[in-house]
């Protein structure tokens, strides 16, 4: 069973609501459920605690001996991420852990960071070099992953007496990447869940924002293809286009239909010189099924 991310706080003395025997039960609408796969990549120098952070988050376990990562390791966890008042996202998150040696990082960075929707740079509170090394790790990752959210995690907060990094040092590095900062302890578990959950929420929020942006940018071309895809072999006649797409200029519509026909995405069946029926082709149907952010049910 997946883990539910709770974005609210509940007091310990809060009691369940009890209704009178003759009172109508309160019916809450079922949330809209979306599904997505997400890839999160951790980076940072060897020994900063990347593997221990993942182990604590996924298994709620900690091993006191140094866990040396050889090559790359992938851990998986199922999360339920709320979005707004009526939507939740069932997320299958794959967490990638990389060996901290620089030469290995350069060798595998293309495959390691490709497709990542979130990045987590990890530093050790007791080692200043591990913080400044993120100035190389993070840009290298962003070159491959693109514009994705980045979190800066300073681990080993339980070793405060051995602190070698000031808060100003951390802010200076984080600001360059607009990265939120979380101080964690894999040993005690302090704020580990918070760091991973916050990044999961940001990944979901960004996916919804990207969907909204695509919807705004969707022009006449996509609207025509979506309409025809729904009609299948019946197609749409000229007058039906204008009934549905109110305000569309005839020349704009006709030019777009001709472009789509030229690309093999639809066929125009003419009825005389001025009337026609547009029917989508198999290639046009495939074009409407482009890769989506959300997985199909």
Word description of this protein:
It is a single chain. The chain has 297 residues and is of the alpha/beta class. It folds into two domains: 27-214, Rossmann fold, CATH 3.40.50.300; 219-288, Arc Repressor Mutant, subunit A. It contains ten helices and ten strands. The protein has a seven-stranded mixed beta sheet, with helices on both faces. A three-stranded antiparallel beta sheet has the order 8-10-9. Strand 3 and strand 4 form a beta hairpin. The chain is elongated. The protein starts with a strand and ends in a 9-residue tail after the last helix. Mean pLDDT is 86; it is low at 8-21.
User: CA-to-CA gap between the ends?
Assistant: 17 Å
Shape: elongated
**Strand order within the widest sheet?**
1-3-4-2-5-6-7
Number of domains: 2
CATH class bucket of the largest domain: Alpha Beta
- Secondary structural class: alpha/beta
Strand content: 15-25%
CATH homologous group name of the largest domain: P-loop containing nucleotide triphosphate hydrolases
Topology as H/E string?
A: EEHEEHEHHEHEHHEHHEEH
The largest sheet is: 7 strands, mixed
Radius of gyration: 26 Å
Number of helices: 10
Mean pLDDT: 86
Low-pLDDT ranges = 8-21
The appropriate CATH architecture of the largest domain is: 3-Layer(aba) Sandwich
And the CATH topology of the largest domain?
Rossmann fold
């Amino acid at each position: 069973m997946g883990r539910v991310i709770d974005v609210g706080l509940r007091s310990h003395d809060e009691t369940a609501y009890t209704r009178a025997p003759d009172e109508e039960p309160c019916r809450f609408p079922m949330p809209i459920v979306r599904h997505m796969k997400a890839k999160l990549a951790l980076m940072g120098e060897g020994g900063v605690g990347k593997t221990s952070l993942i182990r604590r988050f996924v298994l709620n376990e900690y091993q006191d001996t140094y866990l040396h990562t050889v090559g790359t390791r992938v851990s998986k966890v199922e999360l339920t991420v709320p979005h707004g008042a009526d939507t939740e996202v069932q997320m299958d998150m794959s967490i990638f852990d990389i060996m901290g040696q620089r030469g290995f990082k350069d060798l595998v960075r293309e495959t390691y960071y490709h497709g990542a929707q979130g990045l987590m740079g990890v530093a050790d509170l007791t080692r200043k070099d591990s913080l400044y090394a993120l100035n190389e790790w993070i840009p290298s990752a962003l070159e491959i992953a693109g514009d994705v959210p980045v979190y800066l995690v300073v681990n080993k907060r339980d070793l405060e007496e051995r602190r070698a990094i000031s808060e100003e040092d951390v802010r200076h590095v984080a600001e360059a990447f607009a990265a939120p900062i979380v101080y964690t302890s894999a040993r005690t578990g302090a704020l580990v869940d918070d760091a991973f959950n916050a990044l999961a929420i940001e990944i979901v929020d960004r996916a919804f924002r990207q969907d909204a942006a695509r919807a705004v940018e969707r022009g006449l071309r996509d609207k025509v293809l979506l309409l025809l895809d729904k009609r299948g072999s019946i197609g749409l006649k000229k007058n039906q286009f204008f009934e549905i797409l109110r305000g569309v200029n005839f020349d704009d519509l006709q030019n777009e239909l001709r472009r789509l026909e030229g690309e093999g995405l639809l066929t125009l069946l003419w009825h005389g010189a001025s009337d026609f029926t547009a029917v989508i082709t198999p290639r046009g149907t495939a074009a409407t099924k482009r890769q989506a952010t959300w997985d199909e049910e």
